[in-house]
Amino acid sequence: MRVPRPSRTQLGTGALVVAALAVGQVLEEQLPQGSDGGRLFERPVSMGQTIQMRTGDFTPRTVEGATTILRSIGSGIRSPGVVVVLSFDFVSRGESSSLRYGELRDGDGRVTVFGPSGERNDVSCEGGPVGIVVHCTAVVEADPETLPGSTMGLAGDELDPRFDDMAVVDLDISAADVEAWKRAVDLEVDVREVAGMG
Amino acid sequence: MRPKRVRQSWWRRERIAIVLLPVVLVAAVAATSSRVDEYWWQKGFHEQAPRDDRGVVSVDVDFDDGFLKYPIRADISLVSAERVTEVPGAYRAMRLPTGASLWEVRLGWKADPDVSLTGCSIALVDDDGNRYDIDPTSFDPGAVTSVQTCVPDDAPGPQPRPLSAEPPTSPPGAAERPASYETRAYVVVPEDVEPTAVRVWWLLPTYAELPLD
Fold first, then answer.
1. pLDDT, tens digit, 9 for 90 and up, residues B119-133
2. How confident is the model at residue B176 (pLDDT cuts 50, 70, 90)?
3. Is residue A31 part of a domain?
4. In a domain, A65, yes or no
5. Inter-chain contact A94–B189, Cβ cutoff 8 Å?
6. ipTM higher than 0.85?
7. Are A132 and B97 in contact (CB < 8 Å)?
8. Is A132 in Cβ contact with B99 (below 8 Å)?
9. Is there a domain that residue A7 lies in?
């Protein structure tokens, strides 16, 4: 039986189909899948350094800790571990924007996610006027032994932070800091304050 | 004798498909763009209300959240927008954030008293695209200021009731809203910023823009 010989056009069409399938396969394998596709754009930052996030300028100021804290708004916390308090400044750009998503990544690799709950763990940095500094805090309880080497992430939307910038603060907590915090009590925390309005 | 076969070029043979290809591409993109309206068009300032030669902006939109629908119709004009160091009726000095100034925006309104105008937002904008919203929590005026931004406090006119699909109604005992009136709003703006327009809106994408002279 004689096998029909394909024409140049048929060969070209076949080659294009194979090439399209190959490109599709490569894209399928290379592009991020599922939740990984919507991951945040992490912006590493150290204490005192300012970074530009999509919605404004972020500057972490200090990190403190204690076993009990007293908040300017809302209830205090008494913790069996320690309460970590990150103070930071945020200046909205373009329009008033907030930071309402937080996550503590401790030294053991565990992640504690928190938002503007107003309860124990809390970050509720409601946006101030554009161009005006707002002083804010993020408060989170943690196992003291896991704190050295930990970082804290802060981003905009607590319900759907995907696709946006997240500041990742190097908390630079030492074992000596942790030992001091385990003995510290009644740390006073200003929850949020527009600069000059305290 | 067999007729001579005329060989056509590929472009000529496929001419109909080539003409239809852009149409099909446009149709394919349109068919997958339903979220453009929901996630972009309705979330931004895309439809500016018309402004006449006298600077009066006529807003004529429907508030429609899929649950409640009512018309919003008003003529808005800018009376003044200026930096102030004191608010009328002040009983103590005002306090502002560090590096900020306070702007007073006075707007003139003409609207049918039966039309609901509550729930509006007012902001100042500058040439760099920054928007400075009203935020009563960011300063202390040292005086009692209006709760409502676009209607008189004592005669707000019809208002929608929370969690109700009933048409907006006036609060019991409230005076009828005048057909024309003036409002004052206060906006915190950084000291080194010169706003260029006042922006007023209810439900986006429609908004009114009143340039500052």
1. 899 999 999 999 999
2. very high
3. no
4. yes
5. no
6. no
7. yes
8. yes
9. no
- What letter represents residue B128's amino acid? D
Structure tokens at A131: 């161009």
CB pairs under 8 A between A and B: 62
Quick check: B130 and A196 CB within 8 A?
no
Total residues belonging to chain A:
198
Would you call A14 an interface residue with chain B, using a CB distance cutoff of 8 Å?
no
- List CB contacts (< 8 A) between B97 and chain A: 128-129, 132-133, 194-197
The CATH architecture that domain B49-211 belongs to is: Sandwich (2.60)
Residue B13, CA atoms < 13 Å, CB-side half-sphere? 5
Task: Count Cα neighbours of B36 within 13 Å in the Cβ-side half-sphere.
Answer: 7
**Strand partners for A189:** A71
> What is the tens place of the pLDDT at every residue in A32-68?
777 777 889 999 999 999 999 999 999 999 999 999 9
Express each pLDDT in B77-130 by its tens digit.
Answer: 999 999 999 999 889 999 999 999 999 999 999 999 999 999 899 999 999 999
Residue A15 inside a domain? The answer is: no
What's the pLDDT score for residue B1?
Answer: 56
- For residues A138 and A88, the answer to whether their CB atoms sit within 8 Å is yes
Per-residue pLDDT of A133-184, as tens digits, reads 999 999 999 999 999 999 999 999 888 888 899 999 999 999 999 999 999 9
Tell me, yes or no, if A131 comes closer than 8 A to chain B by beta carbon. yes
The CATH number covering residue A91 comes to 2.60.40.1240
H/E stretch holding A123 reads strand A122-123
Q: List the domain range (segments joined by +) for residue A168.
A: 41-194
Q: How far is the alpha carbon of A27 from chain B, nearest alpha carbon, in Å?
A: 20
Query: Which residues of chain B make contact with A126, given a CB cutoff of 8 A?
Result: 137
Rounded-to-integer distance, Cα B23 and Cα A179, Å: 70
Are A130 and B129 an interchain contact pair (Cβ–Cβ within 8 Å)? no
CA A85 to each of CA A104, A125, A187: distance values in angstroms, whole numbers, following the listed order: 11, 13, 9
**Tens digits of residue pLDDT in A64-118:** 999 999 988 878 889 999 999 999 999 999 999 999 999 999 999 999 999 987 6
- Residues of B whose CB is below 8 A from A95: 130-131, 133
- Cα–Cα distance, B132 to B52 (Å, whole number): 25
Report the number of distinct structural domains present in chain A: 1
A195 at interface of B, judged by CB pairs closer than 8 A = yes
Give domain limits for chain B: 49-211
A196–B100: do the CB atoms touch at under 8 Å?
Answer: yes
